[in-house]
Design a protein that fits this description.
Helix content is 75%, strand content 0%. It has 104 residues and is mainly alpha-helical.
């Protein structure tokens, strides 16, 4: 028998995800998130054209969101961004508030 879609579970998961998102924007790195979301596709494509940069951009946003939600220290956020790799660091360097965290 095929798995049935559980709408109640979906709604609960969605509500939890939305709440985490709200917490992230109220957290330590709300400004950084706003600046990240302000980057254009063209700015991201200047780093490396193609889909990989968008995937890494999405991962970077996820890292900053979660760091903001839990008020992660700047040092630990910097380490986590660096673990995403050179493309993530280059994208982060397009955001003035993240440049301060990453160091010049």
């Amino acid at each position: 028998m095929p798995n049935e879609f559980d709408m109640a579970a979906f709604e609960a998961d969605l509500d939890a995800t939305l709440e985490r998102g709200h917490e992230a924007f109220r957290g330590e790195y709300g400004t950084e998130l706003n600046e990240l979301f302000g980057l254009s596709r063209e700015e991201i494509d200047e780093i490396t054209p193609g889909i990989i940069d968008l995937q890494i951009y999405d991962e970077l946003i996820s890292v900053v969101k979660e760091a903001s939600r839990v008020n992660l220290s700047h040092v630990l956020l910097k380490q986590r961004i660096e673990r995403l790799g050179d493309i993530a660091v280059e994208i982060a360097r397009r955001v003035p508030s993240l440049v301060r965290i990453l160091g010049a």
